[in-house]
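Step 1: inspect the first sequence and its tokens.
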Amino acid sequence: MIDKIKSIFIIPELRSRIIFTLCVLVVVRIGAHIPIPGVNGEVLALAFDDLKSGLFGLFNTFVGGAFSQASLFSLGIMPYISSSIIIQLMGSVIPYFQRLQKEGEAGRKKITQITRYGTVLLSMMQSYGVVAVFFTKSDIKWAASCE
């Protein structure tokens, strides 16, 4: 068993991919614990106790609890997944995306680039939605302004 694990690290490309993946996991875990400036996390957690059973609880589960902590990475990977799904659906409806899907490697790279731009756009919209919720719910508004 240990020999198999050692053999994984002998291949340079595989070793670099594993190290990159571990580094990304470390960054994501650290980012999930860094609070958004100006938000009192303890008061916010108390405000979210009432909202655990609804949509907020489901959303909080998807992002590993980062939403109730108001962390920097509270959106998780959901904007990327949503953008990817939207682009794939557009591939069956819009001729431009249909052509890109048939172009091979160049088309795939272009679709990936468009997906990333869509991720940024969706992240901005979802971030605005999160902030809007924070400032419309009275308990959450109070928690966000208490620090």
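Step 2: inspect the second sequence and its tokens, then contrast the two.
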Amino acid sequence: MSRSLPYVGKPSEGLRQRLSDAANARLFVVHAPGPTSFVLRPDGSERKFRVSIGSVHTCTCGAREQPCVHVAFVMIRVFRLTADDHRTWQPSLLDSELEALVNSRERHLAAQRVQARAFERVTSECACSSGCSGDAGAKVARIPIDPEEGECCPICYEEMTVEEEEQEHLDWCKLSCGKSVHRRCLQVWSDHQSSIGKALTCPFCRGNWAAGT
């Protein structure tokens, strides 16, 4: 199948600037209706933008040219493309390119789910080990942040650090997967869940989030 819009061999200066802005943007992914659809909320704003990646990228920001900064954010931060990957600056993707993006992200998420299952254990029936948080209300231990590998927050897609963990800037899923998330980002996620009439769930595993955490 041919590309819906002309292939862009080299990004313009304006597009390069948008890509740079996207790489450094403070945006929150508050909802993912599908594998190629995302709802973003800028930091410090109540406004939300729906981004769709596909044969023709779309964003409700109304930008005249794609990729806008929101589409570029999804490509760079969510789909983890590098700045020199030609897919990053295309206004449209081939079916094969889109499939490769979705499959790559799903493999990454699947690996995280495997890791979570490997660490899952009931903490209420045993003494905490060095990798356990010591939270008496937790049914699942926190999976420690790997100082070598690092891990991205599933809401802002910025790296979470061991220092943030030690300073208690991170919370974690105490009922299901044990994965961490920035506390501030979790509040943004919670606000969105409330606004659409849903109970708070884990942004990683979508399991119920422990009340009062």
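Step 3: confirm your contrast with the notes below.
Residues 121-133 have pLDDT under 50 and may be disordered. The beta strands are 27-34, 37-42, 49-52, 58-59, 151-152, 159-160, 170-172, 180-182.
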